[in-house]
Each structure stands twice: as C-alpha cells, then as structure tokens.
Design a protein that fits this description.
7 strands, seven-stranded mixed beta sheet, alpha/beta
Length: about 240
C-alpha cells in the first residue's frame, strides 16, 4: 500500500508538471525579426544559471524591497519580470501587487518557467502568468505592463535593439522599465551604465533616474518607453566602448 501511495503521489506531481509545461508558451504574436536591426557591437554573456546569488543574500540587501520602492510598485499593477529565471522577484512581487494585480514571469528558457510554475503552485500564488520569449522578442501582449523589470540579465540579451523594440508595445502609456545590472564588462555578466544608456537611447527609451543599490546589488536604471518607435533601419548600434568587452 505504501508503494502504491508513493506511485500515486509521483503521478500527481508529474501530472502537475506536465500541466505547467503545456500551459507555458508565447503570449503574443511575433514582433519584428532580428534581421531588421543592427547586431550589438559588444560581447553577449551566456545564460549560465537561473539565479544570480542566493536568495538569503539578496534578502539581506533588501533587493526586492528596494527595487519595488524605487519603481513605486503598488497593488493592482501588472509587472513583467523579464528574464525571471528561478523567480526571486516573481514570488516577492506577487503578494505586493495583490489579487487585483498580476506578475508576468517571462524567460527564454522554458525549463526555468516550468520550475517556477511549480514554485508558485507550492506557494499558492495565483496571480502569476508565464510567458516564453525569444532572444530578440519577449512576446508579451500589447499594453499589458505598468512596469517591466530586467534584473541582472540585460547583458545576456543576444539582440538588445530588437528586444527593446519589441518590448515597447507591451508597455502601457506612462510605464517604466527598470534595469538592474552591475558596472562590469558584458562578457563578465555586467553592463557599463554608459553602454546601457547608449543602447536604450538608440531605440528611443528615455532615462528617468539611476540609483545605486545596496551592497553588491549594482545599479537600477529607470527608463520610459519610446513615445514613437523609429524605423529599425534608423537605429544605430553603439560602439564597443572601453570596458564593454
């Protein structure tokens, strides 16, 4: 009987996992293809892990709380956790935006989203949606986000100009984009702030503010989306500035 019970329990877990796997896909049609845009003139870091550091360490720095405060996140908002990975921010944003708000956890690695789906199920977080994306396209619904956060992952975006261009339609009027990274070459899993400013400005984003986060948390750069997207052929790639490699 014990063996039968364990087998049934395993089937339940596998069934839930398969259910999440079936539900995870693209939430919007494809955007503009990458071939229309310039390639980045700097190194692109490889995706090596779904998390940057231990959650205990990040909590000790109040990373999630500080980002939420600086971005003025409130109940009822829809927040996109772009490059959600293991879901450090997703599971903390979910209670913050509350039952009238939602979190869209987006990533290009499907198995990360499947694991995060299991995690949100265990935590009984019912306001989280999962969105698979492409390296050049987040594939998010139009006018769906009040805020998008990209935390310690910008340097891993293989086609930044295309990605930023295709992200813009998902942002509501008055939305903000918060990018967290560290002052380190992109090949070393960071993004020099001047390079970040150059790449976002090239697509038409406007910088609102930049903040230094506690400890080794890096910086938070806040941007507003383009009011009118320029033609992809008018976007000029930023040069490989000192420190970008």
């Amino acid at each position: 009987m014990m063996a039968l019970a364990r087998a049934v329990a395993l089937l339940v877990v596998l069934g839930a996992s398969c259910g999440y796997a079936a539900d995870i896909g693209y939430l919007a049609p494809p955007g503009v293809p990458a071939k229309e845009f310039p390639a980045p003139q700097r190194a692109v870091a490889q995706i090596v892990s779904p998390t940057r550091a231990s959650e205990e360490h990040r909590d000790s720095l109040n990373e999630a709380g500080e980002i939420a405060r600086l971005l003025e996140l409130k109940p009822g908002m829809t927040v996109g956790d772009i490059g959600a990975g293991a879901g450090y921010h997703t599971v903390r944003l979910s209670p913050l935006v509350g039952p009238t708000g939602s979190v869209i956890a987006q990533d290009v690695t499907r198995r990360y989203l499947i694991a995060l789906g299991r995690r949100t199920q265990r935590l009984r977080l019912t306001n989280v949606t999962f969105a698979l994306g492409k390296p050049h396209d987040p594939r998010l619904p139009a006018s769906s986000l009040d805020v998008a956060i990209l935390v310690h992952m910008y340097h891993e975006i293989a086609q930044p100009y295309t990605f930023l261009y295709n992200l813009a339609p998902a942002l509501k009027r008055g939305a903000r984009v918060g990018i967290v990274d560290i002052e380190r070459p992109t090949s070393e899993h960071g993004t020099p702030i001047e390079l970040l400013r150059c790449e976002l400005t090239a697509v038409g984003y406007r910088e609102i503010a930049t903040y230094q986060l506690a400890g080794d948390g890096g910086y938070l750069a806040v941007f507003s989306p383009p009011e009118n997207r320029k033609s992809p052929r008018d976007i000029v790639a930023c040069g490989d500035r000192a420190g970008a490699r």
